[in-house]
Structure formats: structure tokens, C-alpha cells
Amino acid sequence: MDRRVIGVETEFGITHRPTSGRGLPPDELARYLFRPVVEFGRSSNIFIPNGARLYLDVGSHPEYATAECSDLIDLIAADRAGEVIMHDLAQAAERRIAEDGFDGAVYVLKNNVDSAGNSYGSHENYLIPRTTHFRRLSGILLPFLVTRQILTGAGRVVPADETREAHFAFSQRADHMWEGISSATTRSRPIINTRDEPHADAAEHRRLHVIVGDSNMSTTTSLLRYGSTDLVLRMIEAGVPIGDYEMENPIGAIRHISHDLSGTAQVRIRGAEPMSAVAIQRGLLERAKTFVAERGAHHEHVDSVLELWERTLEAVATGDHSLVDRDIDWAIKKRLVDEIAARQGIGLNHPKLEQVDMAYHDVSPDRGLFHLLQRRARATDVTTPAQVRQAMVTPPPTRAALRGEFLSAARAFGAEAQTDWVHHKLVDRPLEAIMLKDPFASADARVDALLDKLGDRERQLRRRSIDERDGTAASLALTDLYVRSETDEQAGLPAA
After folding, report:
1. Strands, DSSP E only, in 66-103?
2. Could you report how far apart the first and last alpha carbons of the chain are, in Å?
3. How many CA atoms lie less than 13 Å away from 459 in the CB half-sphere?
4. What's this model's pTM, rounded to 2 decimal places?
């Protein structure tokens, strides 16, 4: 597949911390958080004008699903835009809570575990050809995903229990996976979900739904996460020999690997000698380098992905984490945890370090520890603030552009619209509903023709922007969830 669209779904943790007493329970807090969303779309499950989906998931977890992206930087910027939108919703919730007589702060965390041991996810979606042999795909992809955590894990301070001492692990998510492959998502929580919902032409495509990933704060880690997975998929699709790393027990292996920072923990391979995570990843990396050398780079970020992949493996293999402690989440966090522990003379089992672990994932740009490290040049970034602001209001140049145009134009004219990943409908014109099965198509004459029936779109969008800027429109909180216009910067959109 020369082109691929990728999307990521992120579940966020939320908590209310009052100055005294008990905070609001998660379900009540979620209602405060999503009040602007419900006001905008009459539902807690909506699409917004940047093409993304915003909704409440099981357990009162706010979730943000990026639009489908065909460029890695577009995807990473879209994911970061979701963090900013969640932060803005949290600030609006704080104001509403205060108006109702409560005090305290609302925290939104982009992590995968809470203090009670519950887990929530960061799911990746890759469009793959229907012709891909799933047995071969799973046999190669499972070992890659089980060992990928040494590259792209978020890192975690693991408290002591009756079986082990407090220690630092690669992954937050690894201990919460229960199957290698399954059609379930929450009941058994597999590494790869087989539910076949391509949101595209099912005769040509299927959707690969990966559940195992940690939520990343670092954009360079995200680049490696999506870029390396895409390369492995391309090798599988091309049918090139990759090597046999099929594991006897993927779930036992993923836990074993997570808790061994040396990367040398041995896992059993079917019909072969045991191997370490580093050895498996090195084998895959060498095959990927050969693949790129023979067939050429399929996008401009390939060299950066390969370089970061190799450097991270070197950091794990040698124990010299300084090689990546500005680029890879687990290493960035571990450096911070080690420094605080040394400065305060405390061990890894001290509750303060668990708090540091949580605060690393706070999406607040003023309060979150990752953002603090980034301001101090201790965390690199492959996006710019301008790219993130753009991603808040502008869909990527895929089918999402049509979705965004449809939603923004309908909103500007006061027309009620209904959309999902494929379907687009004006409520008062149900017989003219449109199906967009091509996820790569950023233009469609049918959408233009339907919206042209509403009137002069350009003029109406410009008029709406002026009304919002002057405060004369009945605009909702968060600028109508970032309705798209030609003058977004002037319309008062928040900085990333």
C-alpha cells in the first residue's frame, strides 16, 4: 500500500481535586466536562469541525479520536490538538463547578492507569489492504507489538507488592493486556482487536485496530510508535521475508519485558531458542532498513524513524538512557523520577514519585510536568505550536476535510447535520445523504452540490467569524468547539 491512513483514539483520565473534602465523582465530573459538547451537538458523542470524534466512553472516560491522517506529522499534531481541546474543556468545567459552589481544580491526564489500578487505552487504527493474509500479519505483528514497548512505552513507577520491590517499568499498559488477538475490547482487552469495521470500502480495505499502545506525551515517541508500526505493516503487505519471532505466550512475554529495563529478558519463541526484546527489535529494524534501501522511503519521515528506532535500542541495550532521555517518554520520565528521588533522598516506593508519574501526563500546559520539561528543552518536539493550533480547526487533507467542511458549513447556516466516519446527512434533506467510502478523497462534488443548496458558504463562514469576534452571535463555549473559518486566529482560538 503506497498510501495509508492512520488514526489514534485516546481515552483520558479525569479527576476533581477540591481544596478540602471529597471531589466530584467521575460521572458527575464528566457531565461538567462535556456540557459544551452536548450544547454543541445535542449528544456526548459528536464529530467536530477538525474531523475528529469527541465522546464519553465506558466508565466516564472522555475520549478523542483523531481524524484519519495520511501524514505522520499531521497525525501527531491532531493528537496534540485533542490534548488542548481536553484542557480547554477542563478549564470551562472548573468555571462551571465554581459557579455551582464547588472549588478546586479539574485534572485531565493522558495516561493509561489510575491510582485504583484501572486501565484505559490509546488505540491505533491502520488502514490495510483486504488482501493482507491475517495469519501472517498476526504472526509477525504480535511479536513486534509485544516488544515495541521498549521503544515507545510511557514508563511507569511500579509500587512494591508482596511479589516484587518498587521499580520502573517500560509500559503502563502491558500489565493490563489479557489476550493476543480477540474481537473484544474491554472484556478481555487483546493486543490486536479483530473487529472488522474498515470505515471504507470493505472489498478493498480492513481496519487494523491495535489496543496495546501507551499514551504518549512526547511527539518524537509518537513518531517512532506510528512510523515503526507502519514500516512493519508495509513489509508484511509486500510479502518480504521478515523472520520468525512468533511467541509461545505473548501475554506472559509482554509483562516480563515491561519490567526488565535491560531489555535482556528472554521470551520463548515457537520452534526456536528464546530471544530478548532487544534481539527481536534489532532483527525487525535490520529488515526494515534493508526494505527501505531496496524500495526507497515511502515518506519524508522514514529516515528519522529508523534513526530513532536504532538509537533507542542502543540506549536500552547499553543502559545509557541519556541517548534518548529527551526523545522517548519512558526515558524522559525515568530521568525526572531519578533526579527527584536523588534530590529528596527517597526510594521508588515513596508516594511522591507516583504523584510525579501522574503529573507527567497532566495535559495542562502550565501544570503538567512533561510540558515543564519541554519548556526547559528537556523534551524534543516534532510539531510546532502553529501546527497544533491548525489541527484544532482544520482537518488533514483526507476524507476528514470533507467532514470538516460539511460540519462547518452546516453550522454556519444553522442547518442540523449528522455525520460519522462515512455518512453525511442534512437532517431536513434525508434523501440526499452521502456515503464517502474513500478515506483518501479530500474533495467530492456531491458534498459541494449539497452544501451549495444552503447558500454562499464562503460569505456565511466569514459572517459567522465576524459575529464571534464581536461577541454578537449566540456562540457556545470554546468557540463552537473550534468552528472552521478563514479568520481562526482572529476569532480568539486558544494557543496550543
Report:
1. none
2. 34
3. 4
4. 0.93
Q: Is 57 an annotated catalytic residue?
A: yes
Nearest to 257 by CA among 333, 173, 340: 173
251-254, Cβ contacts within 8 angstroms, sequence gap of 24 or more: 251/177, 251/178, 251/179, 251/180, 253/146, 254/146, 254/149, 254/171, 254/174, 254/177, 254/191, 254/212
Separation between Cα atoms, residue 417 and residue 413, nearest integer Å:
11
Choosing from 57, 74, 79, 175, the catalytic residue is 57
Are 368 and 359 in contact, with CB atoms under 8 Å apart? yes
Question: How far apart are alpha carbons 335 and 351 in whole angstroms?
Answer: 17
Q: What is the DSSP letter of 22?
A: P
CB 64 within 8 A of CB 53: yes
DSSP 27-69: HHHHHHHTHHHHHHHSSSEEE-TTS-EEEEETTTEEEEEPPPB
Cell numbers that stand for 323 in this block: 541517548
Distance CA 361, CA 109 (A): 5
CA distances for 86 relative to 43, 135, 455, 494, angstroms: 17, 38, 33, 12
Phi, psi of 61 (to 5 degrees): -90, 120
Q: What is the pLDDT of residues 313-341, one digit of tens each?
A: 999 999 999 999 999 999 999 999 999 99
Share of the chain above pLDDT 70, in %: 91
C-alpha to C-alpha distance for 397 and 424, rounded to whole angstroms: 17
Q: Please write the tens of the pLDDT for every residue from 452-484.
A: 988 876 666 665 554 554 443 333 345 566 655
Residue 240 to residue 34: CA distance in whole angstroms: 47
